[in-house]
Design a protein that fits this description.
This protein is α/β, with parallel strands linked by helices. It has 2 domains: 162 residues, Lyase, Ornithine Decarboxylase, Chain A, domain 1 (Beta Barrel); 212 residues, Alanine racemase (TIM Barrel). It contains 12 helices and 20 strands. The strands form 3 sheets. Strands 4, 13, 14, 15, 16, 17, 18, 19 and 20 form a 9-stranded mixed sheet that branches. An 8-stranded parallel barrel has the order 5-6-7-8-9-10-11-12, surrounded by 4 helices. Helix 9 links the parallel strand 11 and strand 12. Helix 2 runs parallel beside helix 9, helix 5 crosses helix 6 and helix 8 packs parallel to helix 9. The structure holds ligand LLP. Ligand LLP binds next to helix 10 and helix 11.
Length: 416
């Protein structure tokens, strides 16, 4: 599943001792395994090889340029949601012909940037957006290819903040409106409305909601084709869940087995947009215990990483396993205590883990917050004026600093 394992009671990333990295680069520190990233990408590629999909890694999950470059070199396309992500994608050497652009609030400036750069497809989320893209493309004298993001109105069992394919969510276009758009596509003189897209949510561990959504979308496409409308692109989004603790998510193969029979019947080219599946288990956040505060009702391990470094526990109540870099074997003489692992930020919601058992935890100990490769650094902030962490990528026994730690002067360098 990943390449973070104990060797002689010390936690390693591939063949590199993580404690050594913490010593060299300081904490809090994100550490990533190149091998884990590529293994997950390749697993998906192999599972779907019958339809040779375009796999557009979702940049928002982990947007580091070195990581994007590594996936682009492997043949990945990229799924973006902003001008900033387009900038990163191009900087990482992505071919614009493999870039798909989603998001409900693309501004005119962003639309112009993406059209000028010859992006492959816009995943369009509303009628007014479609009109805006048409108008910008007309002004630039170009024809832009678009897919309609369909909201299939299916329920995906996941956290309410990360479900996106239900009719109450702000995402996508309902099927009836989408059908009308396709039927009247001639109105949009500067657009080639050539595809459908859906993305029903994130951290989905069961293939059923995907199958339901794809079945609806495939039926919709068959209807269009019966009316003589050709659909060239069929984008099934991302959303594959991973293991944080006890989940038993579908594997890439199980996912493919469930959805391929539907996809193979289509004449369209398939696109996938995985984010978490590729990056989630590929990174950990390393942090140091500053104080152990043993209060009457609760014990706190106060660490040097906080909600500004990893917001998922605070925002979604997300569970991340926390492992000591040096695992102390249990002996009866050792102190076993439960701790809340909390950061220095001035909010009670600033916690990384709650009520976790540690053997003989000491001040100065190093801990790894596991499965922090997706929506970790990319959602980090400088709240409480805490400079952002550094990031290190391990590759075949060597570690490379891919983001240096921010300094105090970085905190204010855009302020006038
Ligand atoms: N495609 C679209 C259009 C998306 O909006 C997303 C994620 C993805 C693909 C990739 O989804 P994934 O394969 O990673 O599930 N911050 C939350 C997750 C938000 C997901 C947003 N959209 C978290 O930390 O759990």
């Amino acid at each position: 599943m990943h390449d973070f394992k104990y060797r002689h009671s010390e936690l390693y990333c591939e063949s590199v001792n993580i404690a050594r990295l913490a010593k060299k680069y300081g904490t809090p520190l994100y550490v990533y395994s190149r091998k884990t990233f590529l293994d997950h990408y390749r697993k998906l590629q192999a599972a779907f090889r019958d339809v040779r999909p375009l796999i557009c890694y979702s940049v928002k999950a982990n947007s580091n340029t070195s990581i994007l470059r590594m996936l682009v070199k492997e043949g990945a396309g990229l799924d973006i949601v902003s001008g900033g992500e387009l900038y990163r994608a191009l900087r990482a050497g992505a071919s614009p012909r493999k870039i798909v652009y989603a998001g409900v609030g693309k501004t005119e400036k962003e639309i112009e940037y993406a059209i000028r750069q010859n992006s492959l497809l816009f995943n369009v989320e509303s009628l007014p957006e479609l009109r805006a893209i048409d108008s910008v493309a007309g002004r630039l004298g170009k024809t832009q290819a678009c897919a309609l993001r369909i909201n299939p109105d299916v329920k995906a069992k996941t956290h309410k903040y990360i479900t996106t394919g239900h009719k109450q969510n702000k995402f996508g276009i309902d099927i009836a409106t989408a059908r009308n758009i396709f039927l009247n596509r001639g109105q949009f003189e500067n657009l080639d409305i050539a595809g459908v897209h859906t993305h029903i949510g994130s951290q989905i561990v069961d293939a059923r909601p995907f199958v339901n959504a794809i079945r609806k979308l495939a039926g919709f496409v068959r209807g269009l084709e019966a009316g003589g409308i050709r659909v060239k692109w069929f984008n099934i989004g991302g959303g594959l869940g991973i293991i944080y603790s006890g989940e038993r998510p579908q594997t890439a193969q199980e996912y493919a087995r469930a959805v391929l029979p539907l996809l193979k019947k289509l004449n369209a080219r398939i696109i996938l947009e995985p984010g978490r599946f590729i990056s989630g288990n590929s990174g950990v956040l390393v942090t140091k215990v500053i104080y152990l505060k043993e209060a009457p009702r609760k014990n706190f391990a106060i660490v040097d990483a906080a909600m500004n470094d990893l917001i998922r526990p605070s925002l979604y109540g997300a569970y991340h396993e926390v492992l000591p870099l040096k695992s102390a074997p249990y002996t009866t003489s050792k102190k076993i205590r439960n701790y809340d692992v909390v950061g220095p930020v001035c909010e009670s919601g600033d916690f990384l883990a709650r009520n976790r058992r540690f053997i003989d935890l000491q001040e100065g100990d190093l801990l790894a917050v596991m499965s922090a490769g997706a929506y970790g650094f990319s959602m980090s902030s400088v709240y409480n004026s805490r400079p952002r962490a550094a990031e290190v990528l391990v590759d075949a026994g060597r570690a490379r600093l891919i983001t240096r730690r921010e300094t105090y002067s970085d905190l204010v360098h855009t302020e006038r």
